[in-house]
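Honest question from a wet-lab person: if I give you the sequences of every part of a complex, can you actually get the arrangement of the whole thing, not just the pieces? Trying it with mine:
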Amino acid sequence: MSNSRVTRKQLLLGAAPAVAAVPLGGYAVASAAGADRTAVHEHGDVRPGHAAMIGADVPAPGGPHDLDGLLVPPPALPHSPGRVREYTLTADDREVEVAQGVTFAAWTYNGTVPGPIIRATEDDLLRVHFVNGGAHPHTIHFHGIHPADMDGVFEIVGPGERFTYEFPARPAGMQLYHCHATPLKKHIHKGLYGAFVIDPKEPRKPAQELVMVMNGFDTDGDGENNFYTVNGKAFYYAKYPIRVRRSQTVRIYLANLTEFDLINSFHLHGEFFRYYPTGSTDHFEYTDTVMQCQGERGIVEIDFHSTGTFMFHAHQSEFAELGWMGFFDVVD
Ligand code: CU
Ligand code: CU
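Yes, you can. This is the full assembly:
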């Protein structure tokens, strides 16, 4: 895939704002040509702003609203059996900026990694038009309950072809979707996945709702991730903390689509939360850390006791230092 020389170790030494106050020996940036090619520039001193943990000086790609569409789900609709919910997903090969100055030659649904949030209410008829605009055969495999011929395993959609998936949305919870063409590891790691939220018949109580898809990017093709993110951009929520209200429950639809590493995790500072595995039952755990295998997902509900700035991150420290960390800005 590339001839990059950036190793995980070098990135850990250089690319992480989390290692504040430590003189940084290397810093990874992409060449102007992009396309998987990265280079390490050695320098002996701390770059101004490089060690910032939070705010404008954090090296994260994108503007303050670039990830809004992947963070904030469309609103839930009331239960209305048989209503049709239609989406169009187009597979598209595209370079995406996954860390500041570092691009990744992704395979995307609708141009982003993760792909768009699909949302339906239980008993809606979900209709997803899939257009393969990429150079490889792809599918969409949905987690949840559906007929065998809507499973996205056998119905391979070639480049230039299309397929329509249609089934009643169930069960309620945080589901997900991903390509199921082979080699599966490659099709998932390249970026073909996203969140699929199914709302229950009885609406959940009001909350500020967020979606976080945990993932990783192997930008040098060595079979190990060089960056870890939620919603596709390393350190993004450290540069742009998420503003929430103490008076309102924060509900996070959380999923793990990280390839190469066995697990990923979500840890919150200064607070506990309810974690509903899959979100399909009332069963929850009261904790400040959850781990998920690839394909696992669930619903996190936080009622903040205090205002202030609270960190959230993978509790694999290495993942946090390679991009998977951010902050909530809790206000009244
Ligand atoms: Cu695929
Ligand atoms: Cu799966």
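Two things worth pointing out. The helical segments are 8-14, 68-71, 184-189, 236-239, 317-321. The first strand starts at residue 26 and ends at 30.
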